[in-house]
Amino acid sequence: MEAEGQEEFVGCAHYKRKSKFVTPCCNKIYTCRFCHDENETHPVNRKDVTELVCTKCDTRQKVQAECENCSLRFGKYTCLECKLFDDEEKNQYHCEGCGICRIGGRDRFFHCEKCNMCLPVKLKNKHKCVENVSHSNCPVCLEDIHTSRIPCHIPDCGHLLHRTCFEELLQAGHYACPSCQTSLLDMSQLWGFLDKEIEMTPMPPEYQDYKAEILCKDCHKESLVKFHIVGLKCPVCGSYNTCRIKGSPKPTAPADSNTHDSPGPSSTGQGTGSSSQGCEDSQ
């Protein structure tokens, strides 16, 4: 047995553990599924794993919590259903609904049956349900979300994306959800800036009576508004996250003024919406 206070057999860059597994797909030995997938051209399903190798005595054996030869415990956290062993404290727990182990503590999360995923308890009855939302790929990197170890971001529209992908979108100047084009966060400051830009940038006289039909990507309302090169503002919710519909802007007779009018604005492709806490990593 290892001496008290010593940390040996630390596993790999992904997990601290005292076992390796025999891959059912190619009969090779790896410390974890991520190590396998990084070195092979095919993924491994860890739930298909049936054999382990003890890192202390090299005994090959069936999947179990402790070595049958030297009694070494393979991980402080053990889930035999997921074939998961981890010596690091992450408040791990197994979610029957998700079918996988999560981190962060069971008391801090609940499983939403419709979304089919674990969410922070503060979002209970306060989030927009999207059926089986986590059982899809991130719309930015196209990698799986449900079993990803990367934390998720959950915008108000309910479509998931990796938190790192969300941050990269913002850094690149993209503020709309890649799935539905709704604004990913509160854009009121930018909308106020565009209001001032329009006020300070009058259109030439020949274009002052031009109007455009728009669709707001934030409130999903259609409106007829005054055309402006800076942006087309939704008169319903005040968003500039709009797009033109039904052709090009056209001059409108002064008498035709019973529809929604708003001073200016062109499509920015960015909107309102707010950020909510994302889901935790999956193991």
From TrEMBL:
Keywords: Metal-binding, Zinc, Zinc-finger. GO terms for biological process: protein ubiquitination; ubiquitin-dependent protein catabolic process. The keyword Zinc-finger applies. SUPFAM superfamilies: CHY zinc finger-like, RING/U-box, Zinc hairpin stack. Residues 74-137 form the CTCHY-type domain. Residues 247-283 are annotated as: Disordered. GO terms for cellular component: nucleus. It comes from the Eukaryota. It holds the Pfam family zf-CHY. Residues 262-283 have a biased composition (Low complexity). Residues 138-181 form the RING-type domain. One of its GO terms (molecular function) is ubiquitin protein ligase activity. CDD domains: RING-H2_Pirh2-like. InterPro entries: RCHY1_zinc-ribbon, Znf_CHY, Znf_CHY_sf, Znf_CTCHY, Znf_CTCHY_sf, Znf_RING, Znf_RING/FYVE/PHD. SMART domains: RING. Residues 5-72 form the CHY-type domain. This is RING finger and CHY zinc finger domain-containing protein 1. It comes from Gryllus longicercus. The lineage of its organism: Eukaryota, Metazoa, Ecdysozoa, Arthropoda, Hexapoda.
